[in-house]
Write a structure and sequence with these properties.
82% helix; Glycerol uptake facilitator protein; globular; mainly alpha; 253 residues; single chain
């Protein structure tokens, strides 16, 4: 495992390199990132929906165990995920390797591409294929969406913050790990933990809430009301609790 100061440098360098990618690469990799997170959530729904409620939280636990596949693919095979960028690109911003304009443009571009990937999975695999529809999977999708929407604005914000604290840590640990197996474990545990706790991830919520909309359970207004505070909380979690905290702790001034 790399030393924390070396991990920070890797984050800064990676954040700077993300800014230099072509728009085409950002859009393609952002689409992949949104799709992979959504496929992980789709696996969660399939498992949770088929585990009897009498077994308590087993369905949620097993679902949380498979959800990390999305970020594993993104970080090892290639992809762009806005919640990860909220930490990594912020590290480059704090080190003055990029401008605030670069940061804003990257975050907005990747958010858009992630959203397209998430909506694609929700409509094609969820709605058309039927993996978020029907009595079993549709019911689970509706329950999960209802749980997100029942949270207050402040709860959504802090839940989003807690989520991206752990997502940012998973990316941090991945950059510090040596070897594919070490990187997979570094990603898996923090992501499994945030899913098991029930913290809210903006890109995952785009998939879930869109799937619920396509099945007629909720509205686009519900979607926006949830997404805004969760997204802002994600920014705080990745930018402040990981990038800023570790930058102030490990960077030589």
């Amino acid at each position: 495992m790399e030393r924390p100061d070396n991990i920070l440098q890797s984050c800064i360098d990676t954040g700077e390199s993300k800014i230099k990618k072509t728009l085409e690469a950002k859009l393609i990799l952002g689409f992949v990132g949104g799709a992979m997170i959504s496929l992980g959530y789709l696996a969660y729904i399939k498992i949770a929906a088929t585990i009897p409620e009498s077994l308590g939280g087993l369905g949620s636990f097993l679902g949380a165990c498979v959800f990390p596949v999305g970020l594993i693919v993104i970080l090892l095979a290639g992809g762009e995920l806005v919640t990860g960028n909220m930490m990594v690109v912020s590290a480059a911003l704090l080190d003055k390797k990029i401008s605030l304009g670069d940061w804003i443009k990257n975050i907005l571009t990747i958010t858009l591409a992630n959203a397209v990937g998430a909506l694609f999975v929700a409509y094609v695999f969820g709605h058309i294929v039927g993996l978020t529809a029907g009595e079993v999977y549709g019911h689970e999708t509706a329950l999960l969406a209802e749980g997100k929407l029942n949270a207050s604005y402040l709860q959504c914000f802090f839940s989003g913050m807690g989520c991206n604290w752990l997502v940012g840590l998973s990316v941090w640990l991945c950059y510090g790990a040596k070897g594919s197996s070490g990187k997979i474990l570094a990603i898996w545990f923090p992501i499994m933990t945030f899913v098991l706790i029930g913290f809210q991830h903006s890109v995952a919520n785009i998939f879930l809430l869109a799937a619920a909309i396509f099945e007629g359970y909720i509205t686009w207004f519900d979607f926006i009301q949830n997404l805004i505070p969760v997204y802002l909380g994600n920014i705080a979690g990745g930018m402040v609790f990981v990038a800023l905290f570790y930058y102030r702790s490990y960077r030589n001034h």
